[in-house]
Design goal:
2 copies of one chain form a homodimer. The first copy, chain A, is of the alpha+beta class. Helix content of chain A is 31%, strand content 30%. Chain A is built from 13 helices and 23 strands. Chain A starts with a helix and ends with a helix.
């Protein structure tokens, strides 16, 4: 892919309201652009990463037997009256009237819709369990949109809903979803902690959050440096430096947390209020037992930038990088170098995603932009091109070498 | 994949408001379900087809050098005031206020947003051309939602926008997009006609629609049975049976048309009003020359059902079928047959997508549902299983044969 066609508007300065590193970097690297307060356009480089994150989420959800569907953003008031949330939910719920003055909201979450979808068709335990998920755009009218994609008003989420005949089966899906989330975040290269949380506006009995430890974030989290223990500081009663309650070796540290996932044992809150009943193995009529499991796709993108960057450069994990290789011909009027850069691009395109910086810019600009946008393997085609050689940099290891063009191609084709 | 886990709620009866065949079939086959008037949930089988259609669209757009981005659904009033459309657009535009009483609309189209995204960064002809697309949920508050996904209020579209330095370059992209649309619809197995159209609420100078000829649809179209000629009847002045104006052999026929794509030469309507200027090769400041190209993803799904079905059964084109093979064990208490069905499922899963009907239902129900949901290759595992044999049906050709299990596996693994 030619960088000139991709539309990567890099910038020297971040927007003034960008308080956190990932927000600054995502703006400067041309990953996203603000369209209104808390509302962003994902530019091509950012969208490529989003697509990779979504593919990983789909693979891991399909692997546990969950099926993808797509529910609407426009949700009719009557469903939210059934659950009782139309009046409980605060001004974060975007409400409006259609042309016939019927009331709607823009879904921040889909418990009502999924319950309405399922209740007409699941009449017996024989049709259970059921696990349905979607990757979809959600809306929450935050009072103070902040931190870029972290507290936005329009965002992309994966939400999974499970329907069970028993508490034991709900427990099973809850544990499966925890494992699935760990797997997804591991694949994406995100280090997360699991924290017990309150159930808030979603409701239910038990809930956990997946948090990325960071210098920024909305909640202060205490966590153990050697085991899985982590908790919301407000509830934990522990201070940084304390010995840890559940493991012998670690000590407690403190950090802000970026919430990238939250899972809830809903129980029968929605099925009872919305009349979603089934006939159990003993012939008794019972409400469906539900779980819901959210994963912030756009937040995950931002958290990945926060964790894999310094102030002037991103380094994408291999699983979600927008391109594997970045080929930089340093002078666009050096025909030998340009030809070699194009040859490398074309040869490696069969097995890798390759970006070539074909812009007529000074080498310094190309290097700075390359650091900023974060592609892990870099090939610099400069004055050694006349001897058939390029400079190769593995940004993960810092390894640099001047090697033969053919050797480079063989290295990546092997 | 087990059919019991997939959530395919087939129905004997279609909803009463389903006036057209595809709407009836999509409801009965468990492809979609209405959530509110003109607002649908895509169920897992329908979503699988949508994902295939989207993959084909992405491949063909990436192939012409277009880059994917994602713009927001919530669009601020000020952008629509700049273009002048805030006051021009009718009540189909969903308008609402956020919690701070700022006005927004839900995008039915994204000319304003894309122009605002691009104008800050494209200052020179050196950065042109540019082709940016998204696959995104759109909103149009239809007065009378009708025909299922054909005239819905929330729908999925691909929209491409091009930015050129000259009329010639716009002409180039317009022709490229036409070719790309033909390729996409061919790959999906949709027979389309191209009809000149008016520019309506989008604006611009030249526009064409891609129409699927059908018994239903919103416009009456006249078309030639042997050449590419087609036109909106209102403007064509031709009647069914007429000789065709542009080719010698064909005769004019009449049909309704389902619009699945529309393309526009916008020119400078948005760039002039929204101040999106660049410096051309002569150093002059000029407005960007734009094109926009819409393709209805959910409409394409519906049109594919309309074209590839009869009243009680769908037959998916191979490129978008939700599964390739449908394995039907006829009796769930016949251990030999069930084991064989599972073996076939597992063996073919490596190279094909396979659905196994593991429901404890009568054979008649399984056959009816299998016809309805439309998977092209069917394997029936019944009483011949004890002799190692299954019945294989190729629904495209109608070919039926009783063959050895291993022969079947070899046939699909070859």
């Amino acid at each position: 892919m030619k960088q000139s066609l991709l539309f990567v508007p890099t910038m020297k300065e971040a927007p003034k309201d960008a308080e956190v590193k990932s927000h600054r970097l995502m703006s400067r690297a041309g990953l996203m652009k603000q369209t209104a307060s808390g509302i962003y356009t994902y530019l091509p480089l950012g969208q490529k990463v989003m697509n990779h994150i979504e593919s990983i989420i789909r693979e891991e959800h399909d692997a546990i037997g969950a099926s993808e569907l797509l529910m609407p953003a426009m949700q009719p008031k009557d469903l939210w009256e059934e659950s009782g949330r139309w009046y409980e939910y605060g001004p974060e719920l975007v409400r409006f009237e259609d042309r016939k003055e019927r009331e709607f909201c823009l879904g921040p979450t889909h418990e009502e819709v999924i319950t309405a979808v399922v209740r007409d068709h699941i009449d017996s335990y024989k049709k259970l369990p059921l696990a349905l998920y979607q990757i979809q755009t959600k809306f929450r009218d935050e009072l103070r949109p902040r931190f870029g994609l972290m507290r936005g008003r329009e965002f992309v989420m994966k939400d999974l809903y499970t329907f069970s005949e028993s508490e034991e089966d709900l427990d099973y899906w809850y544990e499966v979803s925890k494992k699935t989330y760990r797997k997804i975040f591991n694949r994406i290269g995100l280090d997360t902690k699991i924290v017990a949380s309150d159930t808030g506006q979603i409701g239910g009995k038990v809930a956990h959050e997946f948090m990325v430890m960071s210098e920024v974030g909305e909640d202060t989290t205490v966590f153990c440096d050697t085991c899985e223990y982590a908790a919301n500081k407000e509830f934990a009663g522990l201070s940084s430096g304390d010995a840890c309650p559940n493991c012998n070796e670690g000590t407690i540290q403190e950090a802000k947390g970026i919430e990238v996932g939250n899972i809830f044992k809903l129980g029968t809150k929605y099925s009872e209020s919305m009349n979603a009943y089934f006939t159990d193995r003993d012939g008794l009529r019972k409400p469906l037992i539900m779980g819901c499991y959210g994963l912030g796709v756009s937040r995950t993108l931002m958290a990945a930038v926060e964790q894999h960057s310094d102030e002037n450069s991103i380094l994408w994990p291999e699983s979600i990088t927008p391109f594997h290789l970045h080929v930089l011909p340093l002078k666009m009027n050096d025909d030998v170098a340009l030809q070699m850069a194009n040859d490398i691009h074309d040869a490696l395109l069969k097995t890798h995603s390759v970006l070539i910086d074909d812009r007529d810019e000074r080498p310094g600009v190309k290097f700075k932009d390359a650091d900023l946008i974060g592609i892990p393997y870099r090939v610099i085609v400069g004055k050694d091109a006349k001897d058939g050689k390029v400079e190769y940099i593995n940004r993960y290891t810092g390894e640099k070498s001047v090697i033969d063009k053919d050797e480079l191609i063989a290295k990546f084709s092997g």
